[in-house]
Each structure stands twice: as C-alpha cells, then as structure tokens.
Amino acid sequence: MNAAADPLARGWCPGILRPMESGDGLLARLHPPHGVLSPEQALAVSEASRACGNGVLDITGHANLQIRGVREATRAELEARLGRVGLVEPSPRAPFRVTVISPIADLVSDGGLDGRALADTVERAARKVELPAKFLVAIDCDDRFPLDHLAPDIRVRTAATGHLLIGLARQNGVVWGAPVSPAAFEETIGALLERLGRLLRANNVRRVRLLPHTELEPFVDQGQPGPATRSGHPPRAGLVPLGTARFAAIAAAPFGQITADMLAAAADVAQEAGLPELRLAPNRGLVLAPLAPEKASTALHGLAACGLVNDPADPRLRIVTCPGAPACASGHAETHDLAARLARHLPARPWPASVHLSGCRKGCVRRGASDLTLVAGETGVDIIPDGGPFDAPVAQADFDVIVQHLEGADGAADFAHQITGGRAPRCATTT
Ligand code: SF4
C-alpha cells in the first residue's frame, strides 16, 4: 500500500464528504454521535451500502461504521442517502467525533456518571479548538465495558470519590492529573484541549504521547497515582447484566465486518425488541440494550441469526485480522477467508488464545504481541509465536501447513518446534 492509500500513514480520516481510496474502491466512514444508530438510520446505511458501495461494512474499533467499495459515480448518491437520515458530517474536516464511550455508558444506576453526557461535554469543548484529525478521548468510566484496549490521547476515568480523573497518554502509559469534580469537568477539559491543541501544533506532532514530557508541565507536576488497574477485556458476545433486571445483548461482527444484509437484519431485531437504538461497540460489535430478561435471549439469538457472533467461546473471537486483499492494495492474502478457515481448525486448547492474521507486515490492526501472529507475504506466511508483526518469524510456511500443525500443537514452543522441524528458527530481518 502506498502512502496515499494507507489510512495509518496519512494524517487525515475519511468521512462521507471525503472518502478514502482503498483496494476495493472508496471507503466512507460514518461517525455517529455516541456510536449509535436508530433502526431507521441503520436501514438507510444498509441500503446505501448496497446501492453505492459493495455491500460490505466494517465496524471499527472506535465504534464507527465504514461503507466499503464506494465508487466515484455513486459518491453523490451516498451523500444524499445518508444526508436524509442526518449521518453526513457538517464539514469534510476531521476530527468528526473525538470521543469513544462504552456502548452502555448511558445505562447507569446508583448515581453513576452518564458517559454520553461526559462525551457531549468533551465534544462541545473540542469544537472550540483545533485538534489533529485522529485526536481521541476515551470516556472510560464504565467498568462493565472498559476501554483499556484503546490508545487514546486522553483517558477519563472515575475516581473512588465520584470525581473524574483525566489522564494523558505517554509512550509508556498514562500520567494522571488531580481529581476533578463533575461540576468542574467542562472547564478543565476545555482548557486542557485548548492547551494540547496548541502544543501539538507547536511541536508538529499529531499524538499527545509524542509531546516532550516537559511540555506537559504543570499537568505532570500534579501527577497522581491514577485509578485502580482493571483486569479483563470488554465483553464481545453474550448477555451483560445492567442491574435492575435489565440486560445488554452483545454480538461481535465476524472479524470486524458485516454485510448490508446483516445490518438490516440487526435493525429489524432492534425494532422487534422495541429499542430505539442500535449501539456500535468499540470492539467491533453491535449491542442491543436495555432489554428485559424475557427479551434479552431472543435479541441475542436474533443477532446470531443475522450472522453475528453471540457465543463468547466462538473461535472466531480469538482471531483478529485486517481487511487484507482485495480490500487493501497491500494485502498478500484474502485475510477474511483465511481467518474463517483458521477458526474452523483452532484447537479447543487454551493456546493460541489470540491470533493475529495480517495481510502484510504493516500489522494495521494490532501492533503488539499475540499468542500467534501470522503475516502474509509474497512467498508464504511468516509465523511468529508469542510476538507481533514486527518481531522475527521462526519460519515461513504455506497456510495449509500452518493449519495442519496448529491442530496438534500444545503451546507456542511446541508449535515452533513442529513448524521448524526442530531446527533453529531462521533469522529474519524485521523493522
Ligand atoms: S496490514 Fe492489512 S490493512 Fe494494513 S496495509 Fe497490510 S494488508 Fe493492508
């Protein structure tokens, strides 16, 4: 993928008014407020995807929706269709939405803070200042759906006192400021965004973690221990209790993608459950909530009937993959087809709990380590047990050979031993 076609290498984000070139046509990204669509909007997106794109949509890790395969000839119609349901951004200039929240952040009880209200406060403040296109604020105040997997510029958490903690991204973690009362949050976040926008421009960098440490004084001077560490990942599939006899039905998009038909069917499920919203999850799924107990299981099965993954034990949830070929011009393999095959052969044993199948060495969807990383190349698939796409592979093999050895492997070392035939791993240069 050349720089002009690589979303990660570019300093801008696609929207509806300014889609991005991709291997399968133009990619138009929707940024619905709070990551929420009404069933009517979801149906309109589904129809627009069929009429103006190739009928394939991505649910992104920031709870956005991407319409793939749009053509120059259908751009105007796409804008018109989405404009009729209020889903076109007011200007082609990003950032369109700087916040990411839990998909159930508004369904609070016991005096908890409403994540949507906090997000609205941040969005209001962000509109008054100039921020880079990819600037991100995680409103991470809902322990039922933690957002630790995201790498935002700013993280907002709740302190035990009911105050808010604001953390700034650093290269090796987060530095936390002093607790802020909910009443003072708007003024504090407004001042911080204004200052960060100025510093990012002055230092010619796009992410807060790249700012020199000294630039963040006096915020750093007030550094606090930060909130308690949480364990676990946000739920990807199943029923999540919300308290007061309500549930959220959560289902994952297989490998992050759905079809227009799946989206339309999910909108029908939401309507049948009497819900006004379809919630996009920032771990590439859909959420229906709040649901009474007698409707919750029906809704979850309904999402499965649409083709989404509703079982937390489904092996597809152990695999992450990028669009790959033909959606991405740099892809050396059709990653979604391979991932589906891989899922059918993943052993029930604990290893590998996480597999990253990458269409090329760029590793767009996960830069860090997985139990097993497979990187498609021109001459075969690089195999990296217990590592990430930038680590040295132990071997390169045909995909069928990998699948065959995977079924019998008992852990990373055993797999590496089998795949290399007991030889020392081959040396490889990595960047
Ligand atoms: S990792 Fe996947 S999406 Fe990223 S450039 Fe390579 S093939 Fe394309």
From TrEMBL:
Please give the InterPro entries that the UniProt record associates with this protein.
NIR_SIR_4Fe-4S, NiRdtase/SiRdtase_haem-b_fer, Nit/Sulf_reduc_fer-like_dom_sf, NO2/SO3_Rdtase_4Fe4S_sf, NO2/SO3_Rdtase_FeS/sirohaem_BS
Name used for this protein in its record = Precorrin-3B synthase
Gene Ontology molecular function: 4 iron, 4 sulfur cluster binding; heme binding; metal ion binding; precorrin-3B synthase activity
Keyword set for this entry? 4Fe-4S, Heme, Iron, Iron-sulfur, Metal-binding, Oxidoreductase
PROSITE patterns named in the record: NIR_SIR
Say if the entry is tagged with keyword Iron-sulfur: yes
Pfam assignment, any one: NIR_SIR_ferr
EC numbers, comma separated: 1.14.13.83
Signal peptide interval: none
Which superkingdom? Bacteria
| Protein's UniProt keywords contain Calcium | no
Residues covered by the Nitrite/Sulfite reductase ferredoxin-like domain: 19-83, 248-305
